Fold this protein.
Amino acid sequence: MEAKSSVKAPLLAVENLGVCFTHGAMQAHALRGIDLEFFKEEIHGLVGESGSGKTVTSTCIMGLLQSPPGEITSGKIVYDGVDMVPLPEPEKRLYRGRKIAMVFQEPGKYLNPAFKIGDQITEMLILHLGLDKKAARERAVHLLDLVGLGKDGRVLDSYPHELSGGMKQRAMIAIAISCDPGFLIADEPTTALDVTLQLQILRLIKKLKDILGMAVLFISHDLGVVKEVADRVSVIYAGRIVETSTKGKLFENPLHPYTKLLMLSIPSAQRRGVRLATIPGRVPDADKTPEGCAFHPRCPLAIERCSRENPSLGDFEEGHRVACHRAGESWIN
Ligand SMILES: Nc1ncnc2c1ncn2[C@@H]1O[C@H](COP(=O)(O)OP(=O)(O)OP(=O)(O)O)[C@@H](O)[C@H]1O
Ligand code: SF4
Ligand SMILES: [Mg+2]
């Protein structure tokens, strides 16, 4: 499905979000003015290598940034017209789980081993939706069916250790969507799974997005996975968005050298046998971000200006924004 026009109001907008972690004299500027928009019925993929700021972004949206050491130094996170950043904790809690939910990379870590899956789902429903036990159990059976864990509700009586990795991830997704959230965050939800299960979970997330009409933030370090699932894509590097567009435009005409290099590292049938490109070096630590364009030490197109001047994220064409002094140029003949 092609992404919705950005003329529509987003359900959730991150505006100029800045985050700094302070440890003694060390200051790590993990996010340096991030803008992201999320629309209903749309999966927005956020992609970047390890340490680029993906999880810090999702932690802030969930209202779970630990402070100290973290601090939101600038910006807003607007859900349905309300900036959630200044809200007191009890009000933030009304959003978490109820309106904004999250699935994680390792469901085993987040499912409570001491409680049956059924108890973990019904607890959410009783707490957030005020259902009685019977109604909560009925809804839990429906949720398990929705995530592909059977119509009979048998899994409700299982403990997490009795489930396979794929089933645990499905159960975690059932808990996440239990209160019908408008916004779902999936942070590397398939990284720990084998390829077949990965595909099944991606299909499930797409199906649930369609059925429930959610806006989804899908986080991955793998542009190939994002290509599979997303309607819109943003590329993040060293705490800044460097390129953002609909999936169609981004894959048709990547403009940022970093996006192009990420694309060259996706395995493809056409390039079978050709060695995949790897990007030399790594994302700088957040307390050592280089001056100018943070990508310049690794960029095949870098010029002198790049080490002095940080390019801002601007429109290259309608609906396609990029932060690069040489956007659209190529170093590949
Ligand atoms: N508590 C913290 N204190 C100091 N720095 C932190 C803290 N949490 C995160 N950072 C830094 O913020 C930057 C972004 O981290 P983040 O966890 O968001 O990366 P990521 O893109 O999710 O990476 P990964 O793909 O490995 O999950 C990194 O440089 C990281 O070291
Ligand atoms: S601004 Fe310069 S260093 Fe940064 S990505 Fe563009 S060409 Fe490369
Ligand atoms: Mg992460």
